[in-house]
Amino acid sequence: MTPIRVFISSVQKEFAAERAALRDYLCGDALMRRFFEPFLFEDVPAADRRADEVYLKEVEACGLYLGLFGDDYGFEDADGLSPTEREFNRATDFSKHRLIFVKGEKDNTKHPKMQALIRRAGGELIRRRFASSAELVAAVYAALVQVLEDRELIRIGPFDAAACPNATMADLDDEKMRRFIREARRARGFPLREDGTAEDLLTHLNLLDDGRPVNAAVLLFGRMPQRFLISSEVKCAHYHGVEPAKPIPSYQVYKGTSFDVVDQAVDFVLSKINLSVGTRATSTQAPVTYEIPPEVVREAIVNAVAHRDYTSNGSVQVMLFVDRLEVWNPGALPPSLTLAKLRLPHGSVPANPLLAEPMYLVKYIERMGTGIGDMIRRCREAGLPEPTFAIADGFVITIQRKNGQTLAGQPESWPELQPQSLEARVLSLLVDGPLSKSELSNRLGHKEISGQLNKIVRLLLAERNVEMTIPDKPNSRLQQYQLTAAGAARLNLLRKGRNDS
To answer: What is the CATH number of the domain that holds 34?
Structure first.
């Protein structure tokens, strides 16, 4: 096979030793040199071509982009961008598999533009830190082995396909498997009969490894899945404010199969949010409408359970606040997807394919990657802002509630949003690009621009956390507001403060 071309970024002198160490290691290691071919800009011979043309063309042609981010930002061109940021942008535009390694544990001494670049990269993918060349080489090795696993270039299967340690067929529930067959036959025309054996079902679903149940089998049909996979539980919390605070009014930890924890977590949320009951004018049953469509709640929770990283010790967390629903899971986007591309039509890339397939067969998930689009559409139809997505030590979906009102339009006795919370939400909305006040108001779930939003925008402008896109015409109807590097740093502090609380 042709080795994968690895573009090792940064032409800064700061990383000369690290780049050389990576090149020597990739060329010298028996496994690495079989699958990877490193590219370093300094190894390019002299030529009658502009340097930026050479390295950007190499980014486009490479199979994997490896970014090294340190203290220095580097030489800035006429647009104020360094080669490192140009390379990262080009790798993102061309959907390259990106691996980012940041030198040092703290970023406060780094160039402000490098700080901003690190934050932006951290919002799209998982990054790793290192303190020395030895640590960098070890971290790169682990990451590249994962790449080989993901691309099935080495025969190490995904987590859900690995045999579950110490689990036997006796640890699976026969009744749960029969019920699955019954529901899958009705939902998708599943070919197996209900009176088939457990071995028949597991073999058909590829859930056996040399006669032993794999992790996905235990998650789907186990009598006590958490006995073997402790973090597969789902934690649900309901807060009466807009930030996590103790004591928690309602807190539940749900255990059981993947189907069980999804159903229980969905019921938890639906039991806490507002609903309106219509009249029986057109039916014998009065229609019930939830402030957040149940399909949206279910899709967010199913995604978290089906696509999470089960090698992590973290559990899925479902947190209901007065103004929003947050669903967090210890996982990340596939390398080919970014947060922006997630909103567009895209293929289904399940993190746990053997777990996802049975959930598809009983209509818990769809195979074609339409779930996110359906969530966005249903929120719009319900008069809610579009859901937001973020990478924050995992993957987070945030769904806004109908702030401070029931569906009948009567005020609730909920507390007003605190200015700092609204500040963080406005800054978060601007991460994806400039927005007008009307667009901000809409995404916050407000019918009109409130005095509180005007006050927050003025404060953010004064502190230079945001800036106008048309500064010469402050009152222009086309005026929008965009995040500054200082604003990104402020948002990071607000998020850190919330995570530490």
So the answer is: 3.40.50.300
